[in-house]
Predict the structure.
Amino acid sequence: MTARATTPGSTLPLAAREGGLLDGLDSRQARLCLGIVAVLCLLYVAFALTPSSYAMASQYLGLAPIEPLLGKARGIRMDEWMVYTPYVQIAVANDFGATNAFSPYHETLRSFQALPLLDWGLLFKPYHWAFFILPPANAYSFFFMFMAMAFLCGWALFLRQLRVPPLAAVLVALTLYFSPYVQVWWTTNWGAFALAPWVAVAWLRIDNRWLRILASAYALVVWLLAVAYPPFIISALLAMGVLVLAFRRDALTVARLLDAAVAGSLALLAFLGYFHEAIEIVRNTVYPGQRESAGGGVNPVALLTHGFPNLMTRGFYPLPAFEPSNACEIAVFSSLLPLFTAVLADWTQVLRWARGHRLSLAVLAAGIALVACWIFLPVPLRIGQLTGLSMVPPTRALLALGLLLNIGCAIVLVRGGVRLGRGRLLLLATLLLAGCLLKFAFGQGSFSRLHATADAWPLLCVGVLAFAARRPRFAAHPVALVLAVAALGNVLTNGLFNPVQSARPIFDMDRSAVLASMQARGARQAADGALVVEGRYGALLSGVGIPAVNHTLYFPQLAYFRARFPDMPEDRFNTTFNRYHHVMVSDVAEPRSMYADLVEVPAAAMLAAPAQPPAPPQP
């Protein structure tokens, strides 16, 4: 049972001779596939489906539980179900205006996570246009569908610009989308991941110079306005820059580089025009404005996890050796591609191809080494400041490392071909089993306490690979087969981290039932009419239309809190309130910031009338 990379006497790598499969489906098959995808997208929006974990909110607020249609809601995604989704509810309730008229803070809704607002920025938010056509639940479903398709199409097109064949590009894009890192961060960082490649695609693909400049500038503004989160933006830019430098140096002409500078300048003007007030406020905050990171601090085992995807986790959650952590912070941008490349690549052909592409591989290796050093080694903060990496916490640089490793391995497989002999497949299964057993080194306990169903999926994929390699139809196209199985591995392992949840309950929440539940928990009304209830509720109460002191504030509301704490020393007041934060009400004697994004305030002070009239609300 062997599918070789070359036939006897052939000097061409298999990937160059796989015929129509790697190059793509014929036109009839392609139309059929596109038709199926289009129908699935229409059904997704028609049934108002989302990957939201908002079902957690119903339980958290004391209402009858909402059951997802598939999978389960994740409490760890509270940045989505406790913050972003409620802010979408707020935007809808305010008729897409720029200010939350129903909140005691009267906060701006023009935040760094894009909301559907009726202002000039809507031109650069095509994913939100449906809110002005469809019911809110279907529009929210369209938003998530748009982002998923933007990710898959964008990264596939970017890979095509790296001269990866069509089918291979689609399979690798699917692998990237279902990587654990993307899935655990997806529901709040969709735009940072999905819209990144479109900037590079517009710049590389379009030949007409003026159209290239305009399209690149538009794509860049769309990306920046969606999720203006520098760590992911810089990480993605770094990865794409290294890949273009490695495999598309022909595009780095003076004219194209000048066009990139012009497009970047236009995009920067639009970004500053939209966010100029917010930028100044955030720059002066304690968090995140003054946050900088030195290199290192990520467990070196994470590097090995790029080849053994479940090495540090049981299911999605960290093993005892890696606590305290959580499903999001422990995740890496992993897949089976690196291990498949190490074991299954036809290294004779790979080395032959490498001799003609030494510079490309050197650039790729240098890029991987640079990012790995920042992630795993104690690089001084000063070096990070000089390179711009100080804005990228090492855990966020895992995005760049994963993109470089997975795309680099895919290109090696496509250019060099693979061998699927019994010995190689047996070695692959042995390595995966060894990785599974290695987990015993990271935690005490029985097999069932350290392992989950996710550990079986890679071994099942090897079985699928071995079975398919015996079938002539698949054995004739081993590279496509290996890429498809790598994609299957990520789909099976991470496909249901986010649930399939109807958006209709999100926009049909019973406000009176929530209010009754809060009153049963001891909620009282402040002098200004706002609800005050002990506990942390994020933006949930505001999301269902209840004016509440308990909230999540994208921007600090200094005037509001100064009116209630006029005697608080300025330096302590600034350190406490000048930040992005959840407002949590408790029985503390005075305000305190427990964590970077959490501020506790005393219930008594919030119930009383302000000691001085509040100044006009800040953004």
The longest helix spans residues 254-283.
